[in-house]
Amino acid sequence: MTDAAPAVDTVATTLEQTKLEDKATEHVHGPDCKHDHEHDHEPTAEDAEKQQGQQRNDFDLLEINGTREKTTDPLVKNYFEAKEIFAKAMERLNEIPEGADKELIEKHKDEIVSVTSDLMRAFLLDEKACVMNQRILKLAEQYELYVQTYNPEGTSTATVDSEEEGAEQQMTIYTRDSVIFVIMILWNGQQFEHCIQTLTFAIQEFTQLKGRLLELRASCHMALRNFKACNEDLEEALTCEPVNVDIHSTLGNVYYVIHETLDAIHHFKEFVAVAHPDSRTLPNAYYALSILSLIAAPSGATKKKSNQALKQAAVLKDAQDYFQKAQIADVRFKELYGVPTGLNEIKRTAFQAFNMRTASRSGVLSTDSTPALLEASEVLKKAFKNPGMSSCANCGRADNVANEGRSHELKPKPLLRCAKCSKVAYCSRPCQITHWNSTHKNQCKK
């Protein structure tokens, strides 16, 4: 048994936090309540089916469309493998009585350990295949009591922060599965800041899972719009799992959002070079590359056969090729999933750029797409001109933190500009101070 210095959340404290947050949003019945109290009821099978539909993953559309067997996409395989493991574990879990008394734990400890192990395996394989419910939360309590009572092989100890102010830290026993269980609960409950803390502990403790845990922590950072930390985790995850090519797709998207053109191009190219042809993110990657290629096209080529003009023509051709490949990948997506890919900002921008047409002096639309693409290129360059002003220079967040909880009817508050140079922006005053002390004070010019 090994000792570990960092503090870690336990299942008990995590569940208590979850209960407190639930109470904070609990509805209070009163005389001004407008819904029908007489029809309040326990969840029915119909309610469960409705909830499942709301939580459906894109891959589930393959089963609905009858095309699951028509693709060999490894992510599809992982998802359905995780979903099957999860479903079988839930069947066994429903046979274990609820309760946390020692006699019950003693009688069913083998089943509790086995079911917990399979649920954590499913979560690590694909977190989107695992739907949190109350029975799983009660299993977490049972497994925690088992670990604290029996101190099984493979346990370690860590310090736990007490909720009482001024109280000393306490020691707790944990296993790998108990820590992953906490991460699963926090991740599903969207308690991303707490989840990041526990993931940081887990990354230090369980090096064999480092790549996967870094991915999960990156998704938490992304949810909190901390793009800088998200990219750092994903880049490190790639060094741990270089075969996980889908990380390149995610990195490409994040760098695109913060207008880091060259980094976005690099990761999208790495992705499309080896991505499975049925990858659901392939159309988006090609659309993004078509836009980014236009942005990278040289400007000001006046002579038709100059090196600048030849390079410009080559880049424009690459952009057109990427756009055509995106449309081909779109068709394949619809064949498999039965629906078209969503019209996100990247796809919308690509269609606007490649459907532009310019008119000749006589007013007739030109059949040559080059002038229109060059015009679109200049427009896009202006939009991407100053990445420092489109997101926080310290954390990468794209909007002011003051917009959190702000009414949609009110105009959003802009990022805070550096008053001296007006070349960088920040989401908050603390980020501005941090970036000034670490970097910007040596770069800023009036």
From TrEMBL:
GO molecular function: zinc ion binding
Residues of the MYND-type domain: 392-444
Biased composition annotated in UniProt, kind: Basic and acidic residues: 18-50
Keywords in alphabetical order: Metal-binding, Zinc, Zinc-finger
Bias (Low complexity) ranges: 1-14
SUPFAM superfamilies: HIT/MYND zinc finger-like (SSF144232), TPR-like (SSF48452)
Descriptive protein name: MYND-type domain-containing protein
Organism of this sequence: Lunasporangiospora selenospora
Source taxonomy: Eukaryota, Fungi, Fungi incertae sedis, Mucoromycota, Mortierellomycotina
